């Protein structure tokens, strides 16, 4: 059970997220989900994201239970900003691939992108931890990497749905909730489940599932603090493997759904 929150130390107070801050963090996360980023560009954007996260206040990142709730709220805030390419855009970008090939390409690209985040974030974390250790940089960098990786995987899930003619419908907020729930459960969105209301937020069960999944990912990202650049190498490998597992799981679920539920024509038909 979490200990009662104590008064934060100076410089670690919780700063309520303003609309401007949430919008800026959302745009930064969206930029990080691109699968063609160069390493230098990815490091710069990660640095910008870390700054945006720091501006939200980091006091709760020093208490595990509160940190998990803090990151859950952050993921929920940025999810609506994650760009998902529709089937027509995917067709233009990958004109020579059939459905199975395109799904595999998207999974591979996402795994490569999260590996890049691990390499960039892990390298920075390792250097800062050894050269100038601070209690501030480590939690912020871990939160930054976690949110970036989750955003890339959410985008992958949305685009896999597009590949199989099952776009996630609803308002921006509704689509974001469905994507977050799909990420938490490593499954496709069930088209037979009614949509949520406009004002609905993540329910208690869905939030607990998200927190459980985020705890696993946040714990995995602790490898970023390994000595010297081994943190970058290990974080890169683990991110790639985890994203591959997410993509393969959702892909298999969508193919299973396609057998039992009619869908509109596949890409290229």
How would you characterize this protein structure?
The structure is a single chain. This protein is mainly α and 269 residues long. The chain has one domain (19-260). The protein is 65% helix and 0% strand. It has 9 helices and no strands. Helix 1 (19-32) packs antiparallel against helix 2 (39-55), helix 2 packs across helix 5 and helix 3 (64-78) crosses helix 6 (137-163). The longest helix has 33 residues, at 99-131. The protein starts with 18 loop residues before the first helix and ends in a 9-residue tail after the last helix. Residues 1-17, 126-136, 194-201 and 223-230 have low confidence and may be disordered.
Going by helix content, strand content and strand pairing, the class is: mainly alpha
For the sheet with most strands, the description reads: none
Mean pLDDT: 74
Q: What fraction of residues sit in β-strands?
A: under 5%
Distance between the termini: 54 Å
Number of strands: 0
Radius of gyration: 18 Å
- Reading the helices and strands in chain order gives HHHHHHHHH
Short description:
By secondary structure, this protein is mainly α.
């Amino acid at each position: 059970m979490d200990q009662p929150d104590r008064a934060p130390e100076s410089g670690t107070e919780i700063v309520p997220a303003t609309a401007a801050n949430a919008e800026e963090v959302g745009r930064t996360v969206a930029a990080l989900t691109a699968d063609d980023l160069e390493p230098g560009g990815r490091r710069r954007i990660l640095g910008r994201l870390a700054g945006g996260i720091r501006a939200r206040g980091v006091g709760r990142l020093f208490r595990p239970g509160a940190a998990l709730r803090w990151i859950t709220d952050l993921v929920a805030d940025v999810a609506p900003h994650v760009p998902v390419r529709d089937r027509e855009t995917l067709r233009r970008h990958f004109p020579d691939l059939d459905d199975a090939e395109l799904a595999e390409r998207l999974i591979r690209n996402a795994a490569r992108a999260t590996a890049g985040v691990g390499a960039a974030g892990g390298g920075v974390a390792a250097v800062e931890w050894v050269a100038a250790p601070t209690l501030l940089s480590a939690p912020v960098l871990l939160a930054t990497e976690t949110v970036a990786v989750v955003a890339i995987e959410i985008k992958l899930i949305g685009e896999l749905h597009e590949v199989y003619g099952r776009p996630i419908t609803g308002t921006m907020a509704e689509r974001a909730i469905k994507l977050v729930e799909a990420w938490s459960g490593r499954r496709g969105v069930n088209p037979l489940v009614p949509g949520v209301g406009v004002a609905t937020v993540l329910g208690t069960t869905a939030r607990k599932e998200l927190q459980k999944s985020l705890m696993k990912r946040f714990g995995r990202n602790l490898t970023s603090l390994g000595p010297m650049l081994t943190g970058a190498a290990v974080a890169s490998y683990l991110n790639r493997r985890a994203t591959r597992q997410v993509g393969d799981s959702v892909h298999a679920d969508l193919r299973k759904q396609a057998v039992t539920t009619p869908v509109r024509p596949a890409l290229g038909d």
